[in-house]
Amino acid sequence: MEAWQRPEGYWLDKCRAYPDSPGWSEQEQKQVDALREHERDLAAQIVTHTFWSEMSGPERTAARDKLKHAFEEDTALEE
∠ CA 16-19-21 to the nearest 5 degrees? Predict the structure, then answer.
């Protein structure tokens, strides 16, 4: 990203300048690409799993919603 400056009065009362971003190295870009591909593969496995065909419409929707928030529930139990 190119350098930019936040004008005074925009979020804060002070001006703030940001330098040019060096960007990602070739190795970092490859890692990001690999992680994104892995994420797509996992998402496809979850969405197309046979488990979802065993439920009716409303049950399926409720189960998918619960799955989206499963991590939040696990974290709440640990506290």
Answer: 135
